[in-house]
Amino acid sequence: xxxxxxxxxxxxxxxxxxxxxxxxxxxxxxxxxxxxxxxxxxxxxxxxxxxxxxxxxxxxxxxxxxxxxxxxxxxxxxxxxxxxxxxxxxxxxxxxxxxxxxxxxxxxxxxxxxxxxxxxxxxxxxxxxxxxxxxxxxxxxxxxxxxxxxxxxxxxxxxxxxxxxxxxxxxxxxxxxxxxxxxxxxxxxxxxxxxxxxxxxxxxxxxxxxxxxxxxxxxxxxxxxxxxxxxxxx
Amino acid sequence: xxxxxxxxxxxxxxxxxxxxxxxxxxxxxxxxxxxxxxxxxxxxxxxxxxxxxxxxxxxxxxxxxxxxxxxxxxxxxxxxxxxxxxxxxxxxxxxxxxxxxxxxxxxxxxxxxxxxxxxxxxxxxxxxxxxxxxxxxxxxxxxxxxxxxxxxxxxxxxxxxxxxxxxxxxxxxxxxxxxxxxxxxxxxxxxxxxxxxxxxxxxxxxxxxxxxxxxxxxxxxxxxxxxxxxxxxxxxxxxxxxxxxxxxxxxxxxxxxxxxxxxxxxxxxxxxxxxxxxxxxxxxxxxxxxxxxxxxxxxxxxxxxxxxxxxxxxxxxxxxxxxxxxxxxxxxxxxxxxxxxxxxxxxxxxxxxxxxxxxxxxxxxxxxxxxxxxxxxxxxxxxxxxxxxxxxxxxxxxxxxxxxxxxxxx
Lengths: 234, 410
Prior knowledge:
- Chain A contains six helices and ten strands, in the order βββαββαβαααβαβββ.
- Chain A is an alpha/beta fold.
- Chain A has one domain (33-58, 85-227): 3-Layer(aba) Sandwich (Rossmann fold).
- The longest helix of chain A is centred in the last third of the chain and has 18 residues, at 177-194.
- Chain B is α+β, with helices and mostly antiparallel strands.
- Chain B has two domains: 26-72 and 287-408, no CATH class; 90-264, no CATH class.
- In chain B, the strands form two sheets. In chain B, strands 6-7-5-8-4-3-10-1-11 form a nine-stranded mixed beta sheet. Chain B has a two-stranded antiparallel ribbon with strand order 2-9.
- In chain B, a hairpin with a 6-residue loop joins β3 and β4.
- Chain B is elongated.
- Chain B starts with a helix and ends in a 12-residue tail after the last helix.
């Protein structure tokens, strides 16, 4: 089977002329099906830029980036939008729509995919919310939920459409220790059960233990790749 | 086998065409639903936006209503002069300031076999004293042969015998109330004396015409009385009404009269006569422009309000919009959400705007005696204006969506 993610020799710079500054230098990385990879490194190391390239949120410059079998280099805007629908995104902030209930927010992910009517979408969304332990909060607005609950809704939203890849950026940054742990644990459990690979950027040393592999970046290069000390096998 | 394959192909092609279209329709419905949910979430903001659209709506309706009413009322007098053809001086711009035409033209017109009657009409303005308060106001006086039955003002025919007596006139009961409770007094006491110009005349009856721009009220009298009061020469008249024989074709007779009569008269149908008067008020005065300008101002203010609301909705939810883009929602879809909100505001604001305008039309019509009414084409026209206004506001607010960049989300 093809690797869900295959990066080779990616170089990326911001700015022009004298202000040109390379943030990614010759980065190569691949993620296997079902693998959970944590990307760490100091700020400015280029990990966020890498995530935006993989997520088709930014145009490529040099190198090759194969995401779910789709080459991102020279991909059109339409192709990138189409690819994003097959990726689950989780951000630092939940970014839920305040005027929709948790269930409707999750269903928004499904509206992009045809072949379901509204009732089916809401049912699927409800099941997903139950899977993240929010069955009884499904009809609340985000403002009525705690920070950890909101991030769990965001996890449900990222996973409900059965993406081929999940990209998460500091999902615990806005949460306290306990709810952060819980969110990441849920994410990794659900992804493992479905065989969905995860690429997760974090500074948070407390969640490193969920990873199969930890990739450290510094100054735009990958400096170290190590198997995690205790891969979550439970 | 061959025919089967031939049959199969077009059906396939059709399915391929229909499917994405259905998907697009579905997406349109979902984006409009999202706009509605977003609008509904903030009731205060929704109320402001609807009030803004309503305001623009009412303003435009009132401006157009006044404009229509004033032009309608400007032509009240000519409108109620029902006859087949009219002779008018080509230099007459408006009926309250007519150029004289030779009375001889009326008799010349009779030379045509299809012209049955030719009745000269004399017009002048005079002041009339309010019988109650004694205050004077300008009234339009129309003098014509009341027995000829060529011009049928409503209520005139039964008064004809009384009007042929010296120093009598009929008053327009729809004149502005500043002339006093003439109608009521007449109903109670019958004929009474009123000062018109410098003479005391007997008011012997009431007709229905309606006030116009040029004058606040109308008085109709017999030709002879008119000429005595205004000391006008009989040979100089202002308008000639022509009645044709039954079955005569009006355009044909009009054409014949045009060749028959000299260039100092125009031959007009009733419709053309009214249109010429209306055109004077619309084009010869700044009145039309004033109302159009007022309407445009209303639309601009409405557009700014709607734009502000939509812009604030986008600007306040940039990260949510960026997230939707990251999830794979296209720019076009999100633009549809903003435009959908604009269109919803147009519809939701128009309905109370229309209802309010109808109520105001009623109140204003009672207060000013202007004929305010709501023709269907005006309602539809204003709806398209409001729709366009909201649509443009939506297009402007849509530009803010560009600031929602999913690459900034990480």
